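Researcher: I need the complex structure. Ligand is S-adenosylmethionine. Inputs:
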Amino acid sequence: MPDLYADISNVPPEIQERLAGVLEARAADARQKEMLNVYLSEIAFPMGARVLEIGCGTGAVTRTLAGWPGVSEAVGIDLSAIFIAKARELSKGVRNISFEIADGRSVSLADASFDVVVVHTTLSHVPEPKELLDQAYRLLRSGGWLAVFDGDYATATVSTGDADPLNACIDAFRSGFVHDPWLIRRLPALMAAAGFSVQPARSHGYVEEPQAGYLLTWIDRGADVLVQNGRIGGDMAEALKAEARRRSAGNEWFGHIAFASILARKAV
Ligand SMILES: C[S@@+](CC[C@H](N)C(=O)[O-])C[C@H]1O[C@@H](n2cnc3c(N)ncnc32)[C@H](O)[C@@H]1O
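Model: Output:
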């Protein structure tokens, strides 16, 4: 099963609507907000900064950027017309924000027109990450900042012991929904190859306990992938989903994934 976000324009509208809900729910999670705040705080936004988010989805991160100290204008671009329509709806009344449908690998915006470019949980979904990084470099002013935040998806687990069956769902989600789960580990080299001066990566540990949160969506979507791939039947999928809920209801849930942020600058 291909990564849905990598080919989002061809995903049925009802599934895009569901993903839009997942994106907004994830962005509302206090720990997700904290990780965003931590890495944005490491960027020296110039006064009056113009900021671009590539792969903005429903615009949750772009909305935060629009309200960030020093930011005069925030622009979000995404491949999905459905996400962009939602992003516009959710930011009604915010005067310094705009959204456009665009492919981050070939953007028509002007050279050197942004002070900061943010790519938040998007690059691992892009089959040609170097093309997107080249665009970010072109769009930044000299001295401008690139911030990439993504899951180090290989670390994701809800395991409570060896051969925990729920890990089959985690594995299936990872291979079904993320184009390159290992991207974060080769990202510093890719950013340097695009011309950036790269700062050390920061790891953000995301722990869910004793009840399930975002990682429960991995169980549900992973179980569905296993059914679609003919690996298990529908009853087994329902049993796996029920087991996840049993643990959560009994305060026995433990999920972990490490995210990473990597900042880089275009030379002055
Ligand atoms: C996991 S979502 C993250 C959305 C948003 N950054 C957030 O954190 O809520 C990944 C997003 O990347 C978008 N995307 C994937 N490939 C893209 C590309 N080549 N250009 C622009 N957006 C892309 C998808 O449509 C999707 O909205």
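Model: Summary of the prediction. The mean pLDDT is 95.
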